[in-house]
Amino acid sequence: MPMVKKSISVTTQQDSWIKAQIKTGHFGNESEVIRELIRERQIREQETPEEIAAIRAALIKGEQSGFSNRSVEEIWEEARFRHKNTHA
């Protein structure tokens, strides 16, 4: 996809945060950080109120269920299975 060059201004605090994100190794430069933030916002704007309510309900249910003895991989496996079966 073609890129368009933009010039933006940020606060000193925001600049420090952007630089900290790059230091973590998750991003190679400032443009990557900003593009990721834009992608996340675009995704969030596409979420419906029903989807947001469902996510909140799942988080509350998870908090109320307490701790689990299952491994992270077992939990992910179940989540993938549920997702696959509800979106098939």
From TrEMBL:
It holds the Pfam family ParD_antitoxin. The keyword Transit peptide does not apply. Keywords: Toxin-antitoxin system. GO terms for biological process: regulation of DNA-templated transcription. The keyword Chloroplast does not apply. InterPro entries: ParD, ParD_sf, Ribbon_hlx_hlx. This is Type II toxin-antitoxin system ParD family antitoxin.
